[in-house]
Design brief:
With about 160 residues, the chain is mainly alpha-helical. Helices cover about 65% and strands about 10% of the residues. It has 8 helices and 3 strands; from the N terminus they run ααααβααββαα.
């Protein structure tokens, strides 16, 4: 149990967080994000993967090859971290890097055949982890939550 969880739950397992804090969406999102990250990171680690591996492979599968800068924009991974992620993926033979014919200083990243085979396995792992995370919600509520979060994120992405 984390310190945040311990602070929210006294010995009798009843929440002790004040109602005005429990009603703050920003606080709820923050706490859920921490729990979600822990669940996803631990679950992916069990299959020797990280969430950034998945993000890059999914981006390459859906949108095709791209430069490191392009992948950074598509995935939200900082450019400075992207090199490390790509090194890990290349070591596992999940991506291929070739010099860009238009700019030899830049590499073009492509998902490898092994990466294409790995991605559906990671989809399954993530589906199972999301089932755990969203267990109290019905399928309709899960869809509604995803739509609402997408709408919020799209709004704040456009305005920032």
């Amino acid at each position: 149990m984390t310190r945040a969880e311990a602070a929210d739950t006294p010995d009798d397992d009843a929440p002790k967080t004040p109602d005005r804090l429990r009603r703050q969406a920003s606080r709820q999102l923050s706490q859920l994000t921490a729990r979600s990250d822990r669940l996803i990171n631990e679950g992916l680690a069990q299959v020797d993967a990280r969430k950034w591996h998945y993000a890059v492979l999914a981006s390459l599968q859906e949108y095709g090859p791209g430069s490191q800068a392009t992948l950074s924009r598509r995935t939200g991974i900082y450019r400075s971290d992207m090199v490390g992620v790509l090194n890990e993926l290349a070591e596992r033979d999940l991506v291929e890097r070739v010099p860009d014919p238009d700019d030899r200083r830049r590499n073009i990243i492509t998902i490898s055949p092994r990466g294409r085979r790995r991605l559906p396995r990671l989809d399954k792992v993530l589906d199972d982890l999301h089932d755990q995370l969203l267990a109290p919600l019905s399928p309709a509520e899960r869809d509604q939550l995803a739509q609402l979060l997408t709408r919020l994120l799209d709004h704040h992405t456009r305005t920032s």
